[in-house]
Amino acid sequence: MSEYAAKDASDALARARELGSSVRGSGRWYVRYQVIFGCAAALCVLAIGLLHHPYGVALGTGFWVVVIAGLSVYSARQRVVGRGFALRHGGLIATWGVLNGAVLAGGVTWFPGVAAWWVPGAVAVALPGLVGGFLAARR
Amino acid sequence: MTRPGPGTHPRHGLDEVIHAPVRFSVMAALAAADKAEFAFVRDTVEVSDSVLSRQVATLEKAGYVAVTKGYVGKRPRTWLALTADGRTAFAAHCDALRAIAGGDVADG
């Protein structure tokens, strides 16, 4: 390798930082994904828990299917998958799954139509997406 | 002050495969992602398709970049990603650059 000056090395490192920053910016779509996921999860739980049966279940489930289909198309169209995506997404889905299961099971069994259960439950199922989006936005 | 002997200068830590400007840029771009689409890397690094193809082939041959092909709907897509070896090599290359930039050893 020929002569390589400190200035060349600094320039190369600056270029690497610039490119890294640009690529990370293009991976920020996952912030939007998580926030939409969280809000939709909350609305779905509220519809299932507070609207009259069977309309609440039909509306909540239908809404959820449409949102997930839209988010799937949105993510498939992205050009960059950020660092640690698989782990973060797996964590989001697992946490939401546990919370959603607990809120739905408890609510349907013991608190049908009780806002004092379903509203905090909706907030709980929204948290994985909202917290994940907040943390991703800060990175 | 003593000058270092042959082989001790941090420039010897530079990876010749990564050192070329376009390949360095490709590695730097991919280091910030799990994977990125070929066209995205092309636009980010600001090179043509053919130049990027050639440089990626070199990086792939060195075991630093993995190329996967797939479809989104009917549209073909090529994804580029750093391998574990590629990440290690790029980190070592950047360490060498930092050592040179830090000027711990006289250049030459």
TrEMBL record, chain B:
This is Winged helix-turn-helix domain-containing protein. It comes from Streptomyces celluloflavus. Residues 22-100 form the Winged helix DNA-binding domain. InterPro entries: WH-like_DNA-bd_sf, WH_DNA-bd_dom, WH_DNA-bd_sf.
